[in-house]
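Re: that backbone. Tokens:
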């Protein structure tokens, strides 16, 4: 698993690739928490988690997503998902996480959603 980050204005885009299973899920939690920690406390968190490069995710990966979401929510921020392949889209739907996460087809749509939610 690999995560890269970039800033688009005040929005942090985290692009994830590979498998999010087992120990990789723990690493994902640490990585996301680290990037969140870099944002000043007085700045609202705006995060796009781009998952189009993810080939597999298990229950530990789902736990990492929920943990990241909860961390962002505690800081009054917003975390959205983008670029889910068919398999991940099905997983998010089956686990009913689509009721929790805002999911967008593309990074651009996810970024635009922050403007719409002002």
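Recovered sequence:
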């Amino acid at each position: 698993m690999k995560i890269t980050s970039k800033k688009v204005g005040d929005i942090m885009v985290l692009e994830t690739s590979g498998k999010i299973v087992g120990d990789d899920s723990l690493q994902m939690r640490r990585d996301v928490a680290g990037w969140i920690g870099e944002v000043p406390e007085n700045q609202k968190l705006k995060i796009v988690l781009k998952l189009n490069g993810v080939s597999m995710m298990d229950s530990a990966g789902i736990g990492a997503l929920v943990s990241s979401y909860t961390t962002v929510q505690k800081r009054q921020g917003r975390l959205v998902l983008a670029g889910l392949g068919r398999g991940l889209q099905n997983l998010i739907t089956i686990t009913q996480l689509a009721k929790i996460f805002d999911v967008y087809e593309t990074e651009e749509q996810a970024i635009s959603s922050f403007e719409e939610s002002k």
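The first strand starts at residue 2 and ends at 8. The two ends are 33 Å apart (CA to CA).
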